[in-house]
Amino acid sequence: AEVPHPDDVIDSRQRLSRLVDAVRELPPQCGKVFRLHKLEGRSHAEVAAELGISKSAVEKHMIAALKQLAGRLR
User: Is 42 helix (H, G, I), strand (E, B) or coil?
Assistant: First the structure.
């Protein structure tokens, strides 16, 4: 296996740090939905059931989260 160049490691760590900060800045419910779906791998239906919201609300939270994260990470 190749060892990554130190500059690539630093860049990756900085990008990860920016992503973590951006996820923390999401509104509370939006952040919960994002973490459950994207980080824990739960389906929209599973997230909806756990949080007591509709599947449509989960989809709306995901759209909002992805828009906010994309804007923050540009």
Answer: coil
Rounded Cα–Cα distance for residues 16 and 70 (Å): 13
| Tokens of residue 17, six digits | 């740090």
Question: Does the predicted model carry a pTM greater than 0.70?
Answer: yes
3-state SS, 2-15, equals CCCCHHHHHHHHHH
- Tens of pLDDT along the chain (74 residues) come to 789 999 999 999 999 999 999 999 999 999 999 999 999 999 999 999 999 999 999 999 999 999 999 998 88
Q: Which of 40, 36, 39 is nearest to 58 (CA)?
A: 36
Q: Give the number of other Cβ atoms within 10 Å of residue 71's Cβ.
A: 9
Smallest CA-to-CA distance from 47 within 26, 65, 29, 23 is with 29
| 3-state SS, residue 1 | coil
